[in-house]
Write a structure and sequence with these properties.
Chain A is mainly alpha-helical. Chain A is built from 9 helices and 2 strands, in the order E-E-H-H-H-H-H-H-H-H-H. Chain A has one domain (about 10-185). Chain B has 2 domains: about 1-40 and about 75-150 and about 230-325 and about 430-455 and about 500-569, FAD/NAD(P)-binding domain (3-Layer(bba) Sandwich), CATH 3.50.50.60; about 155-215 and about 325-375 and about 415-425 and about 455-490, Cholesterol Oxidase, domain 2, CATH 3.30.410. Classes of the chains: A mainly alpha, B alpha/beta. Chains A and B meet through helix 1, helix 3, helix 6, helix 7 and helix 8 of A and helix 4 and helix 7 of B. The structure holds flavin-adenine dinucleotide and iron/sulfur cluster (SF4). Flavin-adenine dinucleotide binds near residues 37, 38, 107, 287 and 534 of chain B.
Chain lengths: ~240, ~575
């Protein structure tokens, strides 16, 4: 991903890396995870107080390395990288989640507690932490906690946590350049809005009421300075 | 320290009221000191600009913070809480208070919904026997509304409605797709709908300001100066006249008065170096926003004004009132799997429904209008949450993981329609702000304590709002989201202050025993002190207040100019 900044890869080792091990998340237990590093400098109309707060947030470490890698593995499962528009790790999701959880106090406990729940569940079921079980085992757990209609009270905390991670992953992805591309978002550029495209109207079986349209702006005259007669009629 | 000059007028606060007073008084040749507690601000300055930024330009992707409660790209410096400047609420009462601290005040990020009050709105007591009439009527304000329209620019349409007056409008933008669904629904339900009225330049109004290029980001303030902010539209030209000195980061403590009880100037504190500053003037125009103006007056205690300046009636702070509000949203299956194109449009709605049941027999007084929301907006923090929750309505499972989620996100993008109601409350003597005797802010200025409770009028109105919103959303083809709030939640009625239309704290009237200012915003108790914000409102119609603040501030300024010409000031 290129968000007008360098393309950097971050690598975290959970266990000693065997020679020639794959450089992606999710395959072997304890394999290293790589993701695009997000910038730590921003400039978008901040006040002094805001700059100060963001400096403090970037300086704070809240997650342990283990927690961060668990987040990375989960984000990758939720939105994998095997897609032309990239996935969670390409979009730097672990860095985003780390920042936003520090920024929003009310996320700290659910994410930390959720990871701990997931690990204890994985130990019970498969004998190791979530990141240290193999991929089929991880997916077996995800299949149990990914759907919100499951009523099992034992799984409830996991379901809530997985929903939260899905929310953070999708929001973190769809607010990057790749995410907007994936969505097809066309806005945030200078343009002259002149109504819903005709083919879209037709597809929806809708049309503009002629009397309404008559009142709307004639975009070919938008640059002509407005004048009115005494009866409040626009004359330009 | 004391500023050397004796100004003709000192204007306190640079929002809608203060900007207009500054512009008009300077235009008439007066020397003006504009005193503003916040910093200088220009959305065209790249170090302050938040418009035309992509979500990833913010590390939190536009999420709100305590410092930017309406989102990280919102233009407001300020919010529900200000560091070092607390306020309090009396037990068992509620109030939310939104304050901006910047040149232009809240007009940098306001919704630009620009509605004139109608003839009935000035005379509500005559209609329902509640509250009080204004001492003035629509005919007194109309010439000023006309001038404001032409000076500032507002799009809308002349519909000849009895209580939603015509104006000098720019033409409105065409409706978006979800708005067409609403129009169809409203027609089916027999509810009127018209083009919105907003102070956004769909057409050039002069050679100083740009024309809208449809980015939908007016809440970030427009770097083209194509929407109305007091700073960009009024204060910059006033400063360019050379007759205005702007004191930014300068907080007014009180109005100083002389032996005859009239004002001699204001005492301030420079927020940068914490130095005291005195500014002298022949007249003082308070426009710090309704509650802040009341606070300044209450803190201006002297031997001549022992209950605070202008408060011989005990009415400063009384009759504080805000608009009512409630909202609801629906999922529109017709808007699934949309064709994606740029439908940003202007900031906010292109259409709205004004109050349409003036003559109906209802169990509450006064009305409300409907603001319509939806569309394919730019993603920011929160986008993609509960990505496929609407699967529930399609008989499919909610949740999952993997690339299929991408399809869910696209399937439901832009398929939401929402309505927000904004209504008129009945002003109460018993709803008020006062000084809290026990608390000062970091500048040592006693803070406000709020006392506010809704009455059955507002609660019944909210119930009606909920029924209306359900009917219209369903008529538009929507499946209602969430549950309908009942009496246990006061039918979803917003908290007092939450709609940020707080007015009435220094109301105008002909009787000095029951009002703070006369018809021109001039204090009954001090002839060279004026109020040019919404404090003077006797009642806040179901129309958003700012267009009326602007018109009245112009009217007050004309009165000041005239009084000075006649040597009465
Ligand atoms: C998100 C939002 C949306 C809104 N949408 C609409 C809308 O669509 N239509 C509408 O009509 N209204 C809307 N409003 C309300 C509108 O913003 C206000 O009615 C309007 O700005 C009030 O103008 P004002 O001059 O009274 O005060 P403000 O705009 O609040 O300005 C007051 C200024 O005074 C300064 N000040 C305060 N105390 C002191 C002091 N002691 N010394 C020096 N300076 C001081 C403040 O820093 C501030 O800059 C909206 C408000 C918000 C927040
Ligand atoms: S929508 Fe138009 S007026 Fe509003 S900020 Fe964008 S360009 Fe400016």
């Amino acid at each position: 991903m290129n968000m007008n900044r360098r393309e950097t890869l971050k690598s975290l080792l959970l266990a000693p890396l065997a020679a020639g091990a794959a450089a992606t998340a999710g395959c072997a237990p304890g394999a290293p995870v790589h993701w695009t590093e997000l910038p730590r400098e921003y400039s978008y109309g901040r006040t002094e107080a805001e700059q100060q707060r963001d400096r403090e947030l970037f300086a704070e470490s809240w997650f342990s390395e283990h927690e961060l890698v668990t987040i990375a593995v989960l984000c990758d499962i939720i939105l994998p990288s095997d897609h032309p528009n990239g996935g969670a790790l390409d979009a730097g999701l672990p860095d985003f989640v780390e920042f936003i959880v520090k920024d929003r106090e009310n996320l700290k406990l659910p994410v930390r507690g959720g990871i701990a729940w997931l690990d204890s569940y994985a130990v019970n079921e498969f004998g190791a932490d979530f990141v240290n079980i193999d991929e089929p085992q991880r997916l077996a757990i995800c299949d149990r906690i990914a759907w919100t209609d499951v009523e099992d009270p034992v799984l409830r905390p996991g379901i809530r946590f997985f929903s939260l991670m899905r929310d953070l992953t999708l929001t973190g992805y769809y607010t990057t350049e790749q995410g907007l591309l994936d969505l097809g978002y066309q806005g945030n550029v200078a343009n002259v809005w002149d109504g819903v495209p005709a083919e879209v109207l037709a597809r929806h079986g809708l049309q503009y009421e002629p009397e309404w349209l008559d009142k709307c702006v004639d975009q070919s005259r938008r640059d002509i300075i407005a004048t009115w007669d005494d009866d409040m009629n626009l004359t330009s | 320290m004391s500023a050397a000059e004796q100004y003709d007028a000192i204007v306190v606060g640079s929002g809608a009221g203060g900007g207009m007073a500054t512009w008009r008084l300077a235009q008439a040749g007066l020397r003006v000191a504009l005193v503003e507690a916040g910093p200088w601000y220009d959305p065209a300055d790249d170090s302050q600009r938040t418009q035309f930024r992509y979500p990833w330009e913010s590390p939190r992707r536009g999420a709100s913070t305590r410092l930017r409660p309406f989102g990280d790209f919102n233009a407001c410096i300020g919010g529900w809480e200000l560091d070092g400047e607390p306020f309090t609420t009396a037990p068992d009462t509620q109030f939310m208070w939104w304050r901006a601290r910047m040149l232009g005040g809240r007009t940098n990020h306001w919704g630009r919904i620009s509605l004139r009050f109608g003839p009935l709105d000035f005379k509500r007591r005559d209609i329902d026997g509640l509250g009080d009439n204004w001492p003035i009527g629509y005919e007194d304000v109309k010439p000023y509304y006309d001038e404001v329209d032409k000076l500032i620019g507002v799009f809308g349409t002349n519909e000849g409605l009895p209580n939603d007056p015509d104006g000098f409008f720019l033409p409105p933008p065409k409706p978006r797709l979800h708005e067409l669904y609403y129009i169809r629904g409203a027609r089916a339900a027999g509810v009127p709908v018209y083009p919105a009225r907003k102070s956004i330049l769909t057409k050039r109004i002069n050679n100083d300001r740009g024309v809208c290029i449809y980015c939908r980001q007016c809440d970030r303030a427009c770097s083209l100066h194509a929407d109305f902010s007091s700073s960009t539209v009024l204060i910059y030209p006033a400063v360019a006249s050379g007759r205005v000195d702007v004191y930014t980061n300068t907080m007014v403590r009180k109005v100083d008065t002389g032996p005859d009880g009239s004002a001699t100037g204001v005492s301030c504190i420079d927020r940068g170096n914490r130095q005291e500053l005195r500014i002298n003037g022949r007249s003082v125009v308070l426009a710090a926003s309704a509650c802040s103006t009341a606070r300044i007056l209450l803190n201006s205690i002297s031997t001549q004004h022992d209950a605070g300046l202008g408060n011989s009636s005990g009415h400063v702070g009384r009759y504080l009132h805000d608009s009512t509000g409630a909202s609801r949203a629906a999922f529109l299956p017709d808007l699934m799997d949309r064709d994606i194109y740029n439908e940003d449009g202007v900031g906010g709605m292109h259409i709205y429904t004004p109050w349409w049941l003036e003559d109906a027999n209802l169990d509450f007084a006064r009305g409300y209008h409907l603001e319509i929301g939806g569309g394919m907006g730019m993603p920011s923090y929160g986008f993609g949450f509960a990505a496929n929750q609407y699967n529930e309505f399609l008989g499919q499972r909610v949740g999952g993981y993997g690339n299929g989620l991408r399809d869910d996100v696209k399937r439901f993008y832009g398929s939401r329609l929402s309505i927000a109601c904004r209504g008129e409350s009945v002003p109460q003597y018993g709803n008020y702000c006062e000084l809290d005797p026990d608390v000062v802010d970091e500048w040592g200025i006693p803070v406000l304590r709020f006392n506010y409770r809704w009455t059955d009028q507002e609660i019944n109105q909210a119930r009606h709002m909920q029924d209306t919103m359900e009917e219209l959303l369903e008529a538009s083809g929507g499946i209602l989201l969430g549950s309908k709030p009942g009496p246990e939640r006061q039918y979803g009625l917003t908290q007092p202050g939450e709609i940020i239309h707080e007015v009435g704290t220094t109301r105008m009237g002909d009787d000095p025993a029951t009002s703070v200012t006369n018809r021109f915003g001039q204090l009954h108790d001090a002839s060279n002190v004026f109020v040019a914000d919404a404090g003077t409102f006797v009642s806040q119609a179901d129309k958003n207040p700012t267009w009326t603040i602007l018109a009245l501030a112009w009217r007050t300024s004309d009165y000041i100019i005239e009084q000075m010409q006649q040597r009465n000031l």
